[in-house]
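Here is the promised in-class demo. Please do not try to memorize the tokens; focus on the logic of going from shape to residues.
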């Protein structure tokens, strides 16, 4: 009999694996509905939806493996990274979905959220003031006009599967919607800056590298406290705090 593997679990949602099936339990029905809709619209391979009975979504496991994980070594050839970049470009060039995604927050809303979070990080002693201030300045470059794209919204390196140099699927679409394409590129290369050139070779478009760096800082500042409070370790080697330190 297959064992039950807890893939991730916190107060907002949990994902279990039983053999070749992933069971996603989410108390936010709107988030699950958005994920199912995004997978149906995305022009890239996605997991097969086996059934959907709120609050549980069952999807089939994807073949292949990821190119690594945050805090771990990056794997795969330059061609594999380029293939991931090409798949991401197909997504970004697709017709816009109806929903505004996580990557679609306005510059004013992001700036206000970031300022409040930076104050908390310093006041609580979670991060040194100079580290926060330096990364807050770097993050400024993300606050600029951008053309909406079909974005994944949580395109972590662990969410894209490949076999050899072919993308077999992209998982976890609950944050998808209209948004800033460079947010996806920055999320995918967070902690793996050395593979950005390979990814962009497949992406096939010029991007503003200062904005990518800005998103690395911005995303890391916004999630450090949440991760620590939900059982994750942003201080582990290669993870969010190291990303922030690299800007120093």
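The designed amino acids, position by position:
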């Amino acid at each position: 009999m297959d064992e039950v593997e807890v893939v991730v679990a916190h107060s907002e949602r949990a994902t279990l694996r039983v053999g070749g099936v992933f069971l996603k339990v989410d108390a936010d029905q709107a988030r699950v509905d958005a994920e199912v809709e995004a997978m149906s619209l995305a022009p890239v391979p996605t997991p097969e939806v086996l059934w959907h009975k709120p609050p549980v979504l069952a999807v089939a496991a994807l073949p292949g493996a990821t190119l690594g994980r945050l805090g771990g070594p990056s794997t795969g050839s330059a061609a594999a990274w380029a293939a991931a970049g090409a798949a991401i470009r197909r997504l970004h060039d697709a017709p816009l979905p109806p929903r505004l995604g996580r990557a679609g927050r306005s510059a004013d809303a992001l700036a206000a959220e970031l300022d409040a979070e930076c104050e908390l990080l310093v006041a609580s002693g979670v991060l040194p003031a100079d580290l926060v201030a330096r990364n807050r300045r770097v993050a400024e470059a993300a606050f600029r006009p951008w053309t909406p794209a079909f974005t994944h919204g949580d395109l972590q390196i662990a969410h894209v599967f490949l076999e050899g140099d072919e993308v077999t699927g992209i998982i976890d679409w609950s944050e998808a919607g209209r948004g800033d394409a460079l947010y996806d590129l920055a999320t995918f290369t967070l902690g793996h800056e050395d593979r950005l050139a390979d990814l962009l070779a497949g992406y096939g478009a010029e991007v503003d590298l200062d904005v990518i760096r800005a998103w690395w800082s911005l995303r890391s500042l916004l999630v450090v406290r949440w991760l620590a409070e939900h059982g994750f370790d942003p201080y582990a080697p290669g993870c969010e705090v190291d990303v922030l330190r690299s800007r120093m």
